[in-house]
Design goal:
303 residues; mainly alpha; DNA polymerase, domain 1; hpI Integrase, Chain A; 2 domains; three-stranded antiparallel β-sheet; 3 strands
């Protein structure tokens, strides 16, 4: 490959494109760049700017032999399509040869979710006799009552709060802004965290509008991995056997709303889904739950 087509240079420019133009998360950017780098290695000496569209079919056949899941294969194809969209936008190619790559149809899987009782058991299992414990409980409660993504919660600053109106402004995928709502009980707990707990975590941090809402003992923004670790520690202590991630709280939030009669469009808005198709999967979860209740409650439900 010619020096002007250095793989690392292409990947570096692609990374900037994903971050600045597409507003992808760091996790997605890493995955996309790794996928494209693997594809470029597979091409070997073939010039990626001059390949025949049939080459993508060969690569798809190649990766299918590795027994990747359909989800992984779909992401790898999406990565390559995004890469060639980038090359076309930068006028490094005259047409996009990846336009017609088809993504394998994925099996529909229902998201894992928790019942209201299970969530309450988890929250009760968090000891709040330390500043970090209180902070962690508020974090998980916020995930449960607001449907925020973990990255949205981690990215919160004090300027995002409008607690008088029980509102929090978040920035979701693609830097899309939306308002999430919280109940009075959660608001009161958050106010107590701000007034009495925040400075116990780090007394040197001055609260300003741009200050992170959730910090660690070093005064830095609490990262996603730390939130996941706090949740895992809590689940281990209470011997909770179901697999639970922070995203499960988001699934549980959506399912709860639908089970209580919320309109699908409202749930879409609260979750920040660009398409209602992404929200519709929760109707299947809700229907499944209704069937379970029917079978357990109706005298002939299990006949």
């Amino acid at each position: 490959m010619a020096e002007t087509l250095n793989r690392n240079d292409l990947i570096d420019d692609f990374k900037i494109y994903l971050k600045s133009e597409k507003n992808f998360s760091e996790h997605t950017i890493r995955a996309y760049c790794a996928d494209v780098y693997t594809f470029l290695l597979w091409l070997d000496n073939d010039n990626p700017l001059e390949i025949n569209p049939d080459k993508f079919g060969e690569y798809l056949y190649f990766i299918k032999q590795i027994n990747y899941t359909k989800t992984t294969i779909a992401r790898k194809i999406a990565s390559i399509r995004a890469f060639y969209n980038f090359l076309f936008q930068e006028e490094l190619i005259n047409y996009n040869p990846a336009d017609n790559i088809s993504i394998p149809k994925q099996d529909k899987t229902l998201p894992n979710f928790l019942s209201e009782e299970e969530v309450e058991n988890i929250l009760r299992g968090i000891k709040i006799d330390t500043p970090a414990g209180y902070r962690n409980r508020i974090i998980l409660e916020l995930l449960w009552v607001s449907g925020m993504r973990i990255s949205e919660l981690s990215g919160l600053n004090f300027e995002n709060l409008n607690l008088e109106q029980n509102e929090i402004k978040v920035f979701g995928k693609g830097a899309k802004e939306r308002i999430v709502l919280i109940p009075d009980k959660t608001k009161d707990g958050l106010v107590n965290y701000i007034k009495n707990v925040f400075n116990l975590i780090n007394s040197e941090i001055e609260i300003t509008p741009s200050c992170p809402l959730f910090i660690n003992y070093n005064g830095y923004r609490l990262q996603n991995q730390s939130i996941r670790k706090a949740l895992k520690n809590c689940l281990d202590k209470i011997h909770f056997t179901k697999h639970v991630t922070p995203h499960v709280f988001r699934h549980s939030f959506a399912t709860k709303l639908l089970e209580h009669g919320a309109d699908l469009r409202i749930v879409q808005e609260l979750l920040g889904h660009a398409s209602i198709k992404n929200t519709q999967i929760y109707t299947h979860v809700s229907i499944q739950r209704l069937k379970e209740v029917y079978e357990n409650s109706h005298p002939h439900g299990d006949k």
